[in-house]
Design brief:
Elements: H1 4-18, H2 23-30, H3 38-48, H4 54-66, H5 69-76, H6 83-92, H7 97-104, H8 111-120, H9 124-131, H10 134-139, H11 142-148, H12 155-170, E1 190-192, E2 200-202, H13 206-214, H14 228-231, H15 238-250, H16 254-263, H17 266-272, H18 278-285, H19 292-298, H20 306-313, H21 322-330, H22 336-343, H23 348-356, H24 362-376
Antiparallel strand pairs: 1-2
Length: 377
C-alpha cells in the first residue's frame, strides 16, 4: 500500500517544479516545517534556494545547510545532479569532507565550481583530488594558481602541482598564468570593486552573487564564499521563527493546512490539531511523524475537538501509556464512554483527585466512585 504522505510529497514537488505553489507553502517548505521524504525534501529545497523571494531562498539554504552530510553527499555524487545544484552545494558545504570529496569527483561539476572549492576549501584530502585531475587542470588553467594560493594545500601536493605546471609550459601546452586578484573575505558588509576609481560599500545582496554565477567569463570572487550565516540570513532568533510558524499557518487556505497537518513538523502539528477545520485536525493524527509525547500533550488540551480525544482513546498503542490514559480521563472534553472505559486503569491517588474535581461529567464521577469502592472491598 502506497504511503499517502509520500504521494502528497511528490505532488508538492511537481507543483514546486512548475511554480504552482503559494508563497505560504513555499515558506513552510523552506523553513523545514514539512519533513518530507529525504529525496523529495532535498530537491524542493534546491528549487526554493533560487526563489525570487529572498526570504524564501535564504530559508531554503539554511535548511539545506542543516541537512546531514551523508544525504548531501549522495546528491553531490549523483549522475543526475545539475551544475547549479552542485555549485550551491559547494558554496554551503565547502567545509564538509564527505560532501566535497564526492562533488569534486563528479564530472558534472563545472570548472567555476571546482575553482571556488580550490580557493576556499581547507581540507587537504579534497584539494589533493583536484590536483589529481589533470584533465581539468589542463582545461581550466587558472586552477594552478588558485590551488597554489591556498595555504591549506600540503607541501608535497604543492610540489607535484608546480612540477606539472612547469612541464606543461616547457611543452608549450600552458601559457603563463597569473593569479586572479581577490578581495579579502569578510563577515560584515563587503566592498565591491566598481568600474570607477572609487569603491562603494554595499550590504550583502544575493543579486550580486547571481552576477558572478551568470557571467562565466568573470573570475569567481571571494564574495561568493561569505560565511554561511550571512549568506543564508540566519539572524532571525528561534523565538521569532516559532512565532512566524503560527502567522504563516493563519495565511494558509484549508487545502494548504491539510497538507501541513499531514506532513508538518512538531510545531505545526501542535497548532493544527486545534484547527477549526475537522479534516485538518484529523490529518494531524495521521501524520507519520507524530510522536507519543505529542499525543500526551494533545490529550491534556482543553481546546481540541472531542473527536481527536476519541481517536487517541481508541488507539491501543497510545493507551498503553499511563500519562495518556490519565490525561484523557482528566480532560472534560473526552467523550464519556472513552473516559469510563479507562477509569479502571488509573491509580488510586488519581481516582481520588478526580472525585474532588468539579469539571468532570456526573457519569464519569459515578464510575470513579464505583472503582474506589471496589478497590476498598
Amino acid at each position: 500500500m502506497t504511503d499517502p504522505s509520500l504521494d502528497l510529497g511528490r505532488q508538492i514537488l511537481e507543483e514546486a517544479r512548475s511554480g504552482e505553489i503559494s508563497p505560504e507553502m513555499k515558506t513552510a517548505l523552506a523553513q523545514g516545517l514539512m519533513p518530507l521524504e529525504e529525496e523529495i525534501l532535498v530537491e524542493i529545497l534546491f528549487l526554493l534556494s533560487t526563489d525570487s523571494d529572498e526570504k524564501i531562498a535564504n530559508a531554503a539554504r539554511t535548511s539545506l545547510y542543516e541537512l546531514p552530510d551523508n544525504l548531501l553527499a549522495g546528491m553531490a555524487r549523483s549522475s543526475e545532479a545539475t551544475p547549479s545544484l552542485l555549485h550551491t552545494l559547494a558554496r554551503i558545504k565547502v567545509d564538509s569532507r564527505e560532501v566535497m570529496r564526492d562533488l569534486v569527483l563528479n564530472r558534472l561539476a563545472e570548472d567555476r565550481t571546482i575553482e571556488m572549492v580550490a580557493r576556499h576549501c581547507e581540507l587537504p584530502q579534497v584539494l589533493a583530488l583536484i590536483v589529481g585531475n589533470q584533465e581539468r587542470l589542463l582545461r581550466h588553467t587558472s586552477l594552478f594558481e588558485t590551488l597554489l594560493g591556498n595555504p591549506a594545500l600540503p607541501g608535497f601536493q604543492r610540489n607535484k602541482l608546480d612540477t606539472y605546471r612547469e612541464e606543461l609550459r616547457m611543452r608549450g601546452q600552458l601559457d603563463s598564468v597569473k593569479p586572479e586578484p581577490t578581495a579579502p573575505e569578510t563577515a560584515g558588509p563587503m566592498t565591491v570593486a566598481s568600474e570607477g576609481p572609487s569603491e562603494e560599500l554595499y550590504e550583502f545582496d544575493l543579486d550580486l552573487i547571481g552576477e558572478f554565477e551568470e557571467d562565466e567569463e568573470r573570475p569567481i570572487a571571494d564574495e561568493e564564499m561569505l560565511p554561511f550565516e550571512i549568506y543564508a540570513g540566519m539572524e532571525q532568533s528561534q523565538e521569532e521563527r516559532q512565532q512566524s510558524i503560527f502567522q504563516l499557518i493563519q495565511l494558509m487556505n484549508p487545502a494548504e493546512k491539510l497538507r501541513m497537518a499531514t506532513l508538518g513538523n512538531t510545531e505545526a502539528r501542535a497548532i493544527l490539531v486545534r484547527d477549526g477545520n475537522r479534516a485538518v485536525a484529523r490529518a494531524v493524527m495521521g501524520n507519520p511523524k507524530l510522536k507519543e509525547n505529542e499525543v500526551e500533550r494533545f490529550c491534556k488540551m482543553r481546546n481540541v475537538r472531542d473527536e481527536i480525544l476519541r481517536i487517541i482513546g481508541m488507539n491501543r498503542n497510545w493507551t498503553k501509556n499511563y500519562s495518556i490514559v490519565h490525561g484523557l480521563v482528566e480532560n472534560p472534553k473526552t467523550p464519556v464512554g472513552i473516559s469510563i472505559r479507562l477509569v479502571s486503569r488509573l491509580h488510586a491517588a488519581h481516582l481520588k483527585q478526580l472525585m474532588r474535581s468539579k469539571g468532570i461529567p456526573a457519569a464519569l464521577k459515578a464510575a470513579v466512585k464505583r472503582r474506589l469502592t471496589k478497590a476498598k472491598g
